Amino acid sequence: MRIVLVGPPGAGKGTQAAFLAKNLSIPHISTGDLFRANISQGTELGKQAKAYMDAGDLVPDEVTIGMAKDRMEQPDAVNGFLLDGFPRNVSQAEALDVMLQAEGMKLDAVLDLEVEEEEVVKRIAGRRICRNDSSHVFHVTYAPAKAEGVCDTCGGELYQRGDDSEATVRNRLEVYHTQTEPIIDYYKAQGLLVTIPALGEVADVTKRAMDALKK
């Protein structure tokens, strides 16, 4: 299957993508991984992306599209893939359609993980990270530390990352609404959109998505 996963920040896309890709035996292709791999390998596209990022500029669509195209042409993606973070806007969605049509392929479904905005803010702004080890993650509501501000595992100080602040989260949501949300209508018009309520346990959300894909 060839699937695109969309949803606001904090919807759990990365978590769901990993489970769905495993269940469907297809590679999970995320833009974050693409950027890191191309930059670390020193590819031409990676060098271009790094130059923009170092200057604090957005990486142009054509660079992102080039990386995605290269990755989708790898042998493990012959029988399908799950795209996470790409396409990020309508022009990227149109480029993806052209890319797939040239190979005689098409998307099977676009999964939209639906979460209310206030829940997104609550999920992200409530995160607390250990200063000693960033893999120790807590949440003021869903997974609180036994002692406020103190890591249960190592006793390190818990803090809120700058990009997890409520103001930053609301700004990221505004960017999502402006740039990415229009692709939902784009894919709905093609009859590809499947909306999945993303509240609840991770396994329950995965089951909803798998059941929807079977239909």
Task: Give your account of this protein's structure.
The protein is an alpha/beta fold and 215 residues long. 48% of the residues lie in helices and 15% in strands. The model has no long low-confidence stretch (mean pLDDT 93).
As a percent range, the share of helical residues equals 40-55%
Question: What's the helix-strand series?
Answer: EHEHHHEHEHEEEHHEH
Amino-to-carboxy terminus distance: 13 Å
Strand order of the largest sheet: 2-3-1-4-8
Number of beta-strand segments? 8
How does the helix and strand content classify structurally?
alpha/beta
- Number of helix segments? 9
Largest sheet: 5 strands, parallel
Which geometry do the CA atoms define? globular
Present the secondary structure layout.
Layout: E1 2-6, H1 13-24, E2 28-30, H2 31-41, H3 44-54, H4 61-72, E3 81-84, H5 90-102, E4 109-114, H6 117-125, E5 127-130, E6 137-139, E7 158-159, H7 166-180, H8 182-189, E8 193-197, H9 202-214
Parallel strand pairs: 1-3, 1-4, 2-3, 4-8
Antiparallel strand pairs: 5-6, 5-7
Helix pairs in contact: 1-9, 2-3, 2-4, 3-4, 4-5, 6-7
Keywords summarizing the entry:
alpha/beta; five-stranded parallel β-sheet; three-stranded antiparallel β-sheet; 15% strand; globular
What is the structure about, briefly put?
The protein is α/β, with parallel strands linked by helices and 215 residues long.
